[in-house]
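Practice problem 4.
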């Protein structure tokens, strides 16, 4: 329950910050996060395929 409260407080803080940031900054930050998530997903998928094929 404490984790849920902390997560909601953090989400509210982040959304409040984004609401006051310029649109160009928000879009740039969103693009960086999206690229980071895509790279992470590709690395995870590639790592799992290599790991499962070895066994």
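Answer key:
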């Amino acid at each position: 329950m404490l984790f849920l409260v902390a997560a909601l407080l953090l989400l509210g803080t982040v959304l409040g910050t984004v609401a006051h940031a310029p649109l160009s900054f928000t879009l740039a930050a969103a693009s960086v996060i999206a690229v980071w998530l895509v790279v992470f997903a590709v690395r995870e998928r590639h790592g799992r395929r290599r790991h499962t094929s070895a066994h």
